[in-house]
Amino acid sequence: MKYSLSKAGWLGLAVQVLVAQQAQRVRTEHSTEQTLTHTTGLKLSLLQQSPTRNVVAFYEGADKGTGNTSLNFEGQDSYKWSEHSPYTADGWGYFTPDGREIPYIKRDRDLGQTFRHTGKTPKTLTAITVATGYGTNAVRPNTYGRGVSVQIFAVSGQPRLNDNGSGTETEAYHGYPHNRPTNTISPERDDYFEGETYTSLAVFSGATFPDKRAFGFAGPAPADRPDRTDTEVVPSDHPKLKGRLLRFELPDSHPLVLQPGQQYAFLVMLDQQGNQSGFTLANNYYGKYPDGHGIRRDGNGVFPPVAADPTRPFTDTVNAKAYASAHFPANLAQRTAIPPGTNGYPDVCTWRDLLFYIEAK
Question: Most buried of 23, 155, 255, 344 (most Cβ within 10 A)?
Answer without folding.
Answer: 344
